[in-house]
Amino acid sequence: MENDNMSSIEFLKNNILFSGLSIDQIKNVSTITKQISLDKGDVLIQEGDIGSDFYIIQSGSVEIFKKRGEHALSLTTLHVGDSLGELALLGDNTRSASVKTLEPCVLLKINVNDLKNIISDHSIFALIYKNLSDRLSLHLRSTNEKTVEVLEKELIRTKLLLAIGNFIITVIILLVAFAFFVGVVTQLTHKAGTGILITMPTLLVLFILLLFGIKKSGYEKSFFGFSVANWKNALLYGFLYTLPILIFVTFAKWLAIKYVPIFHSISLFSFGKSVVQQGASEHIIIIMGMLYVLVSAPIQECLIRGGLQAPLQQFLIGKYRFFWAIFLSNLIFAMIHLQFSAKFSLIAFIIGLFWGWLFYRYKTLIASIFSHMLIGFWVLFVLGIQNMIISHS
């Protein structure tokens, strides 16, 4: 019992409410304290109840919350040495919030009426009231800061919801437009001998629309991956991760030529001849290759990774939001390639997952663009694999 009393004195002496009191006065206060123990989840104070006790936490922690219908709004968490229910000192016996233990707790309970009975010196009470005023001032300042923080978060949330709405509207419009576009391209591609001459202007228009959308969104360009931060690592590891894919694809075509009869007559290296009509000049092939590497591949990554995956990574919620962002954006990427064949679209989806991962890992379009340029040029213009896939679909 003596140890408990000494413990009570120490906690009273270190509590802001009793700051300035002499040790004898604190010992006097300790005689009216009662030690109570609570289990985890016990409700100490119920909002709206009447009470003239206040408490000091000796061990454990408690949560202060207010009920809002069926939901509880957490206000703060108090720990060892903190006091609660002090408004009873001001004669306000109606509890303004509820208190629940977050773990097993031991608290010192002090009754306001008992405190008044043992303290006859009004100057001591004046000191306690001053300490209480200081504590309430600190609490009010903290509350104001938290209120500002909550309002800022709500503003960000509202802005985010608005951006999500605009994003969904934009995607729906572009998908509808693309559905019409695919039909036109399919017809024109047969006449032109290559889809690049048709898709290139369209990609440029979509890229301009993307830049306009980024400007109107209010977000920084880095939000969409337009950043040169960490560009050296992005290029280096983009190449190192891409190199095994290039080797694998080349080996896979060699195996197909060697062991699949319908591919026996195909050369391992196409060097662009499968991209345009047979008999096209080397100049045309070079121009097509340069257009793909310098225009088509970068714009595709900007549209899919920057325009779709980046916003989805921020808009979606949940543990797997980054996975879903990569998956959903690549569904759109695969759909774009349906104009060639279902098999080609599936391959585009699979390799697109890799580019989506690169973008997520390095937070910049540089890695995915560089890898797309390498793989696209190697597969389309060096190996000509798309001709094997499309012609035998």
What this model shows, in words?
With 393 residues, this protein is an alpha+beta fold. It folds into two domains: 2-120, Sandwich (Jelly Rolls); 154-391, no CATH class. The protein is 63% helix and 11% strand. The chain contains eleven helices and eight strands. It has helices spanning 2-14, 23-30, 112-118, 122-192, 196-217, 231-259, 282-315, 321-336, 342-362, 365-383, 385-391; strands spanning 34-38, 43-45, 53-59, 62-68, 71-78, 83-84, 98-101, 105-111. Strands 1-8-3-6 form a four-stranded antiparallel beta sheet. Strands 2-7-4-5 form a four-stranded antiparallel beta sheet, with no helix packed on it. Strand 4 (62-68) and strand 5 form a beta hairpin. Helix 1 crosses helix 2. It is elongated. The termini are far apart. The mean pLDDT is 80.
